[in-house]
Design brief:
The protein is elongated, with a radius of gyration of 32 Å. 41% of the residues lie in helices and 18% in strands. A hairpin with a 2-residue loop joins strand 18 (438-441) and strand 19 (444-447). By secondary structure, it is an alpha/beta fold. The strands form nine sheets. Strands 6-5-14-16 form a four-stranded antiparallel beta sheet. It has a four-stranded mixed beta sheet with strand order 10-11-9-12, covered by helices on one side. It binds one RNA strand of 76 nucleotides through strand 8, strand 12, strand 13, helix 11 and strand 26.
RNA sequence: GAACGAUUAGCUCAGUUGGUAGAGCGUUCCCUUGACGUGGGAAAGGCCACAGGUUCGAAUCCUGUAUCGUUCACCA
């Protein structure tokens, strides 16, 4: 048999992903098959097909796509494409996250650098305008990048965590929780970020190890007990000294009260006994500073101690004589230490390593301060949920297996976190975000989905999705002659993120989408946000609609560089997925991300690895070229299949079955490896090699049988490979099957 | 301090109910003028961290140790 001469020109050259990929993506978009309803209309999906839903973890609108995004997009797209081809009614809903603090502080930094102006110079309205413009631009960039990766998501349903619909959802949720007594306003010690001028949640803190000095001293010569601290400046705010109840050394002093002047500040401390004190640390006595330490605050609550604030929002001292007053805490520390030495009160100074809590975004050193903030109570029984607490709502579905984590061992981490969970501080003193839907007028408080009456027309003036304006503050209520003023604060960004699975489907409206697609099937995300996000989604969904948000959580690992380091700007070791797509093709990048990457395990990626999969795409290209040379386009009828070929065909069946099993078990790395090996080491190296001999000297029957077999295996292999390398497989498919639907919606070879 | 991982070829990693160790990359040698040099064939290279235990049999299960990593809590 002579090779035919009808091979399309493009196959005479090496595969060119740069030329192909954007064209193929545009074809997919035009086809409408990313949209599950179109799939049904066009008959690609059965009307009664089972739904399969993934909500895309919305990337922050703070910048550009990085390898972590590329990883999540790849894994999700693999699942989505596989399920779509298996016949499911498949929805992948994309979106972006406003990422309140991250976005605002990024814009603030820019403005400060370029214009030397702070947010207070600009004012709320102007700053929000700037942030919104930035968010809009950033959003557009990210969306185009998601497309470059080949993500087959339904753009018609795209959502933003700060658009009008999500704002309504957030406000509705806030009111519901407030009415149920789950949201309360309280004066408690919170984590204050003096640099960002806002509260932050426990899990937004990063502990940084630094050198510190552990000072041991007495408050005064008359005071019987020595204490140790790394922060002597806070000791002017002490209201007690706590010792362990069983500590014989100090038993006689418990219950006594002492007054003295400490560094020119009058101080009164009561000696108390509390279980939380370690007998063996330092002197075994703890100076209790309720206003400036989370644990001390808790001790103070147990013993009803007075709270004395001595440090303000700018981390400066608010008490003392001019030596101390107005000093930054670090300087005040020296002042107090010097005073102690001079007075002969200092007993020892020891250099130690200490973990200093800092704010993740601004790197400001956290100053615990008592402030009036909004909290979510995680321990209050909720009547409408059978008396369960939010903690229980978070715990139960994982415990009874309604939600499965892949890998499973993350369950333990999850439970461990819930056990130590405190009430969630949800108010933030920043401007970009969902403004707290609470209005004040004198003593009156109004909490609602909408502002108090007469205000609603004002607030809804701006309909732009992204440029949603929450700047309206005070409104005159002419009927009553008073003024409603909205709470200045915004909500923690995770409050809206936690609602993502159902808010993006239209809640609080009872939409069709909500009915069909919720609970969603798989949440695919990085394990680093298991607490921030995964737990909050379980909580919010369980509370608001009594449903789990998803059945399965799949954790991908962190993508690291060739040396195992985290990719970061400062190290300059980041690999930009867009550069990769341009140079090697998104297909190659996707394969490199998936290969050798088990769930929850960090992976390393290098240019060499990616290059290898570009070669693979080209290999497939050339396999096609060879087969097209003997293409059985004229073989409309299936020819007689010889023994050898039916063995080959059933071998393929076997491999396809194995790959399908691996996909169903979330072993994407194994599935990818199997199709890769099949195509390269078996199909190309064995089957095609022996085919040369068949076409040279086989019988007419053998030739026809083999031509059919090659074409058949190629076509079916394209399907199996498609979830991993969608572009090159689609490009080949549409070439060899010009009259059929795109590969995107072809039926998977295994049922 | 606690929880949870990891430890397999020079490098990156697979190894899913316990049955004689696998892949890619790299290295070395050879081959190939019609699918592809982005190719093909072959070779070298592992006491599966260590020590015990269970078993006919352990990389795999159990116990302990060491090292690395991640997360949480922090000591004031």
């Amino acid at each position: 048999m002579e090779p035919k001469m009808n091979i399309p020109d493009k196959f005479l050259k090496p595969y060119n992903p740069a030329e192909t990929e954007s064209r193929v993506y545009a074809m997919w978009e035009d086809s409408g098959f990313f949209h599950p309803e179109t799939c049904i209309e066009k008959g690609a999906t059965a009307e009664d097909a089972k739904p399969f839903t993934i909500m895309m973890p919305p990337p922050n609108v703070t910048g550009v796509l990085h390898m972590g995004h590329a990883m999540m997009l790849t894994v999700q797209d693999i699942m989505i494409r596989h399920k779509r081809m298996r016949g499911y009614r498949t929805l992948w809903l994309p979106g972006t996250d406003h990422a309140a603090i991250a976005t605002q502080s990024k814009v603030e930094k820019e403005i400060l650098k370029k214009e030397k102006r702070s947010r207070h110079d600009l004012g709320r309205e102007e700053l929000l305008k700037r942030v919104q413009n930035f968010a809009k631009e950033s959003h557009d960039t990210i969306v185009s990048q998601i497309k470059v990766m080949g993500a087959s998501c339904d753009w018609n349903r795209e959502a933003f965590t700060l658009d009008d619909k999500r704002n309504l959802a957030v406000n509705t949720m806030f009111k519901k929780m407030y009415d149920d007594g789950l949201i309360y306003r309280g004066n408690k010690v919170i984590n204050w970020d003096p640099k960002g001028q806002t509260t932050i949640a426990d899990d937004e803190i990063v502990n940084v190890e630094r050198d510190a000095v552990l000072y041991t001293f007495k408050y005064s010569h008359d005071f019987p007990i020595a204490i140790s601290t790394t922060r002597p400046e806070t000791k002017v705010g002490d209201t007690a000294v706590a010792v362990h109840p069983s500590d014989e050394r100090y038993k006689e002093y418990v219950g006594k009260e002492y007054s003295f002047t400490f560094c020119d500040v009058p101080v009164t401390v009561k000696i108390i006994a509390d279980e939380s004190v370690e007998k063996d640390f330092g002197t075994g006595a703890l100076g209790v500073t309720p206003a400036h330490s989370m644990t001390d605050w808790e001790i103070a609550e147990r013993h009803n101690l007075p709270v004395k604030q001595v440090i303000n929002e700018y981390a400066k001292m608010t008490v003392g004589t001019e030596e101390l007053l107005g000093k930054k805490t670090a300087d005040a520390r020296e002042v107090v230490a010097k005073w102690l030495r001079e007075k002969g009160l200092m007993i020892s100074e020891e250099n130690i390593k200490q973990n200093v809590p800092t704010a993740e975004r601004t790197e400001g050193i956290i100053e615990p301060l008592p402030k009036l903030q909004w909290f979510v109570n995680v321990n209050k029984p909720i009547p409408s949920r059978g008396g369960k607490t939010l903690k229980e709502i978070m715990r139960e579905p994982l415990q009874n297996g309604k939600i499965k984590m892949v890998p499973e061992y993350f369950n333990k981490t999850y439970f461990n976190w819930i056990d130590n969970l405190r009430d969630w501080c949800i108010s933030r003193q920043i401007w970009y975000g969902h403004r707290i839907p609470v209005w004040y007028k004198g003593e009156e408080i109004f909490v609602g989905e909408q502002p108090p009456k007469l205000v609603s027309e004002n607030a809804s003036a701006d309909k732009n999705q992204i440029n949603h304006d929450h700047s309206g503050g005070a409104f005159s209520d002419t009927n009553l002659g008073g003024t409603w003023t909205q709470d200045e604060d915004t909500l923690d960004t995770w409050f809206s993120s936690g609602m993502w699975t159902f808010s993006a489907l239209g809640w609080p409206e009872q939409t069709e989408d909500l009915k069909i697609y919720h609970p969603t099937d798989v949440l695919e995300t990085g394990y680093e946000i298991i607490f921030f996000w995964v737990a909050r989604m379980v909580m919010m969904s369980g509370y608001a609609i009594g449903e789990i948000p998803f059945h399965t959580v799949y954790f991908n690992g962190t993508v690291r560089d060739g040396q195992g380091r985290k990719m970061s700007k400062s190290l300059g070791n980041g690999i930009d997925p867009l550069d990769i797509a341009k140079e090697f093709g998104a297909d190659a990048g996707r394969m490199a991300l998936v290969m050798g990457t088990a769930a929850g395990t960090d992976s390393k990626i290098s240019v060499d690895k990616i290059k290898g999969y570009k070669h693979f795409a080209n290999k497939l290209w050339n396999i096609t070229r060879f087969i097209l040379g003997y293409a059985p386009e004229d073989l409309v009828e299936k020819p007689e299949i010889v023994e050898r070929d039916s063995v080959l065909l059933s071998k393929f069946e076997e491999v396809a079955k194995e790959i399908t099993d691996e996909l169903d078990k979330y072993n994407f790395h194994l599935a990818a490896e199997k199709i890769y090996h099949y195509l390269w080491s078996h199909f190309a190296d064995i089957i095609i090699e022996e085919s040369k001999e068949v076409f040279k000297s086989g019988s007419q029957t053998e030739m026809r049988s083999r031509a059919y077999t090659l074409f058949k295996i190629l076509s079916e292999s394209l399907k199996v490979l498609h979830p991993f390398m969608p572009f090159v497989t689609e490009e080949i498919w549409t070439t060899i099957h010009p009259n059929e639907n795109p590969l995107l919606v072809q039926r998977w070879p295994i049922k």
